[in-house]
Structure formats: C-alpha cells, structure tokens
Amino acid sequence: MIKLNNMDVIYSINKKYRVNLERDEIQYILDFTLLWNLFELEFFYDNCNKTSIKNKVENYWRNLDKLLIDKTFEYFKNRYISDWVWNEKTKYLNPKNISHKREIIDNLINDSHKLFTIIFIIYRYRNNLFHWNKRIELIDWQDKNFKVTNRFLEYLLFENK
C-alpha cells in the first residue's frame, strides 16, 4: 500500500477533499496511470499526440485483434453517440479544438478509422485525468471507461506480439 507520511493516500485524499473514495472503486483508474505510462513510452517515446497516433495506426498496427477493436469501438460509440447524434458526454472528451471533436464523432457515427478513434479517445482520457479535468468527487464514476480502456492497452502492451 502506498503511504504518505505513514498515511494511506486514499485516506489523505478523502480527508483533504471531503470525498469518500474507496480503493477498489478506483482501481481501474490507478491501473490506467501505469498502463498509459508504459504505452506512451513504448509506442510513442513520450510524444503522443493526434499526429503520432495517426502515424502509428497507419504504419505499425496492422494485425490486431479485430474483435477487441470492434468491441472497444462499440463501447465508445454507445457512450458518445445516441440516435446518430453526439450526446452530452462528448463535451467531456475536451479535445483541443472542435475539429478534433468533430472527427471523433464522425468516425463513431460512420464506423470508420476505428483504431485511431479508440486510441485518440484513450488519449483524451489520459489528458483529462492527468490534467485533472475530472472532478475528484466523481472520478469513481469513470470506472467502466477505464476498465474498457485498460483492457485495450493491456492487449497492445502484453498480448500483441
């Protein structure tokens, strides 16, 4: 268990921010921080961005598990698209500009560029989490997103050899 001055980090966060987080409720988020760091280092040499994602998808990942890609893509599509209209949740992806957001939505609607879209959404999760756009009192609500995301990152890191 991680200790800070002989105190549990989760306990300290709960006390300072007056929240009630449980380690098991945010374990996927904690795991994501490790997985993302490995992923970015191994595949992007600490330089992940929209352009490097596109290049990696086009030039490196060709023989990936199509079923996992489809399942992950469908999860994101169901989360961010409803009745062919982007829903309220898309605003929380917080892309740098509206054209990035539009590209994500268009890809989800048209079932296109699946791998790029998945990784770009995961990248947005990373930015939102590491730059703290996620509210601490609601972070445990992101558990399902990070569970799906982690499964995908684990595949790329450990199973895709």
What does this molecule look like?
With 161 residues, the chain is mainly α. It has a two-stranded antiparallel sheet with strand order 1-2. The protein has helices at 9-17, 27-44, 50-59, 66-80, 98-110, 114-130, 143-159; strands at residues 3-4, 7-8, 81-82, 85-86. Helix 2 (27-44) packs parallel to helix 7 (143-159), helix 3 (50-59) packs antiparallel against helix 6 (114-130) and helix 4 packs across helix 6 (114-130). It is globular and about 45 Å long. The protein is built from 7 helices and 4 strands. The longest helix is centred in the first third of the chain and has 18 residues, at 27-44. The model has no long low-confidence stretch (mean pLDDT 83). Strand 1 (3-4) and strand 2 (7-8) form a beta hairpin.
Large-scale geometry: globular
Secondary-structure class: mainly alpha
* Order of helix and strand elements from N to C terminus: EEHHHHEEHHH
Number of DSSP helical runs? 7
First-residue to last-residue Cα separation? 32 Å
What fraction of the residues are assigned to beta strands by DSSP?
under 5%
Question: Which percent bin holds the helix content?
Answer: 55-70%
Look at the structure and give the mean pLDDT.
83
Kindly provide the radius of gyration, computed on alpha-carbon positions and rounded to a whole number of angstroms. 17 Å
Which strand order do you get reading across the main beta sheet?
A: 1-2
